[in-house]
Amino acid sequence: MKRIITLVALIGIMFSVTGCAKATEVYSGTIFTMDTYVTMKIYSKDKPEEIYNKCVEKINELAERYDVFSEDSYLNKLNTTGSTEKAGGIDSVIINVLKLAKTTDYNFNPAIFPASQIWEQERVSEEPKVPEKAVIAAALKKTSMNNVQYNESTSEIILKDGAKIDLGGAVKGYATDEINKILEQSNAESAVIDLGGNVLVYGKPVQSNNWTIAIRAPRDNSLGYFATLSLAQTCSVVTSGDYERYFEVDGVRYHHIIDPTTGYPSDTGLISVTIISKNSLKADVYSTAVFVMGLEKGMAFVKNDNEVEAVFVTTDKKVYTTDGIKDKIFIEDKDYTLQ
Amino acid sequence: MSKRVSKLTLLAIIISMALVTHYIESLLPSLFPFAPGVKLGLANIFTLFTITVIGYKEGLVVAVLRCVLATFIGTPLSTLLFSLTGAICAYIAMSLVLSLSRGGVSYIGISVLGSCFHNIGQIVAAGLILNSVYIVSYLPVLIIMSLPTGLFIGYCTYYATKALYASRALCQFLDAGGQNKFETNYNKLKLRSKA
Amino acid sequence: MKKWDYIIFVFIAVLSVACFVFVQSYTSERGSVVVIELNGQIVKQLSLNEDTSYVVGLMNETEDYNEIVIKDGYVRVIESNCRDQICVNTPAISQVGQSIICLPHRLVVRIDGYNQKIDGVSR
Fold first, then answer.
1. ipTM
2. Residue A103: what are its φ and ψ, rounded to 5°?
3. At what angle do helices B139-166 and B107-130 cross, to 10 degrees?
């Protein structure tokens, strides 16, 4: 009898000890920065709020430095003085973006700002109109990458002839990568970061074996999304589409992703491109570049890089994917067909 | 023969019988078409027998060795984890109820409980390995099925043990001290078993 | 039959019902996704509404396979070279939370609902 009591007691102690094991806490919040909403949800056994605050600090730091509209930002100083030296020194982020842009054959153009601004100003005006050809042509001259001179040995950048760097969405991608680094150095177990539509899932999936990321439907439907992705590990998902900032004139949609060769919103038959990669900056740059390239060139381009997977949606709602994601995408809206 | 050697021999015989039963049962197809995965658990007869006749420690040895040795005779190593969890859970359940009930339970009851926890143990192990919560949906059926299977096993064990006691065949394996224990156990068994 | 025997029988019955209720709370609606998991990782998702057949495996060294058939909103494992054939004998499933499991092949075939919990939306 004594032996039984000891046995039961031991089992009881075993259970109570495991019950005392630390529980994972979660902390989440939303801030408005970089002209968009950023929501972060962090899971950690040890003060997730601290990790969250570190991330917020980093995002604000980057938002301040690369705010193209703010007078004090580094980026603005670079654009007005035309030289990194005068703006305050070398910037490795911009250099990385320039290098990435080159690999896309400048279908992602970091200096597209003068052209894209023309369209943006129309969009927010009272009665948006299609800009004059001459205006677009003039702006286009400024966006040539020849006006951006990068000196490899000194790492300095010189801007000429009215060139202005915007980095576009690339700042969000870079910020996401920096958040990833912060999470890695912390003891966060899992996290879901939504940086203005750039999604980063980090660590152990919270709900089941995989993360479930939905892709926004390019044309409004009842669900809000048209497909979901099942991802097993840390990953960034970035989508570019013609549905976020646009205006319509005479039934024609003019969206915000400008084709650097024409100066007009790209018209290559795609309405949405999603890039999945561990490298968020790349995903960001590629999603814009590939959207401009169109389905054929875009598919060939991403297939060349085994760090990324891609999902393309054409105007007739046909969905094309790279092989690595084919088994992980599930179409929820029957109007969209997986090819 | 020294007490240790004879007990060892006895256990060796029991374990080998359990092993053979385990193996043969694994070759048989599933007996219940509506309840996939339900096994009779014939090898549990031996675990139960050892616990009631010889002792708790020996019962555990039989249960564990039965599973481990099974991997040497053809059961794949991957299933070892599942069968081991099941056998150990069954052992714990049966030992607890036997000692806590002070004779208020018969072979039937112990066996049913053993069968039930054997299944629960296996399901939980499988769920953890496969990382799937959904495997739990098998539990209700398996638990209910432990009633008939436990009943059958219980009867088998009861009649086998009774016959062995009656024939005093075990005496040769036990020395004087062991034989005393045997007599007390036999008397207890008559009280414990189904009337 | 002794006192504790009856207690155990009642306990078993109650436990079984409790498990059933617990499982039911997870599996209520008719599903729409067939999720196929190997070793705990999702390898394929299929629509429950499209009649199709899919073979898992047969490409690894061991040549283990399970053939899954979706027909009329039900999923079953129709063929497999596993030893115990439990997966083949499991009745067809169609509700969220139900699953067919092939333990030797570490295969889980389960049904998931239309509105799974989304962790994030990329836009």
1. 0.84
2. -65, -25
3. 140
Instruction: Work out how many CB contacts closer than 8 A connect A with B.
Output: 11
**Contact state of A207 with C40 under an 8 Å Cβ cutoff:** no
Structure token pair of residue A8:
């039961």
**Rounded distance between C-alpha atoms, residue B157 and residue A132, angstroms:** 95
Residue A166's φ and ψ, nearest 5 degrees, are: -120, -25
CB A287 within 8 A of CB A240: yes
Alpha helices in B28-133, H assignment, sequence order = 44-53, 56-70, 78-101, 107-130
Query: B33 to chain C, minimum CA–CA distance in Å?
Result: 6
Q: What is the pLDDT of residue A264?
A: 95
Say if residue B56's pLDDT is above 70. Answer: yes
> Left, alpha or beta for A89 (phi > 0: left; psi -120 to 50: alpha)?
left
Q: Which residues of A130-154 are buried (b: 16+ CB within 10 A; e: fewer)?
A: ebeeeebeebbebbebebbebeeee
Is A236 part of a structural domain of the chain?
yes
A70 located within any domain: no
CATH number at residue A332: 3.10.520.10
- How many domains in chain A? 1
Determine the average pLDDT of the residues in B119-134. 79
| CATH classification at residue B22 | 1.10.1760.20
